[in-house]
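User: Please predict the structure of the protein below. I'd like the answer in structure-token form so I can feed it into my own downstream comparison script.

Assistant: Understood. Taking the following sequence of 154 residues as input:
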Amino acid sequence: MPIALHFVAVVYTTTKTDTMSLIDRIFERTYPGLMKAMDLTHRRNEAITSNIANAETPGYRAVDLNFAGELDRAFGEQKSTLKLSNAKHLDTSSNGAAHLVPDYSGATKPDGNNVDIDIQMGQMAINSGGYSRAAAMLRKKLAILKLAIREGGR
């Protein structure tokens, strides 16, 4: 299940000078971007796991998630909405549903299945690394915030 962190609601205004909370200035687009990246790597992992589970299913076509496209789509939707009341509100119109696409690469077996376990395991390793890197970056960002709060009180 994806990790979800929630912060105090933030409202963007469209006056001459946009007001930004301290959280906005610290996190800008980094926090929502990292959270979306973690969510998408989790969803891609589910697709890869499904591919592996169906490796022997006749006629099954491997599916994949277009990570870059989904991330662009999420931020495009975020830009189109000027009010953001919560950092979790990235998936406005799609209810967070990522678009899985059939993967036609690779050879198709005589039974119509195109899942190659070795390729899927490699993709899973790469995907897991992406999740780990995003989580590490988020931890560092939160550590900076924690330090600022702690040092600001002195």
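That's the full token string. Residues 40 and 67 are 7 Å apart (CA to CA).
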